[in-house]
Automatic annotation (TrEMBL):
SUPFAM superfamilies: CBS-domain pair. This is CBS domain-containing protein. The lineage of its organism: Bacteria, Bacillati, Actinomycetota, Actinomycetes, Kitasatosporales. It comes from Streptomyces rectiviolaceus.
Amino acid sequence: MTPVQTQPRPADSATAFLADSGESSDGPDGSGPQVRDDMTVELALSVMAGAGAGHLFLCDEDDLCTGLITRARLIAVREGPAYTDQVRLRDVLALVR
């Protein structure tokens, strides 16, 4: 196996990638887990924990990347008064727009 050198992105470059960016499902630079936007918040937090990731790229039914969501944002939603176990990631994105 050939070692690959990676370079972290600046912190604010991740937040710049939001809905309607026109990017492919690989995310802006092909890094980070991609999930469907119909996933629940709890499952997304579990995926993040398993992947050791601080964010997820969200994909629509056509597998096009529609946004990015951070662990901090999901935790804030989960701790909010309107949270139920039925809240989907697309619902969280709608709150951000």
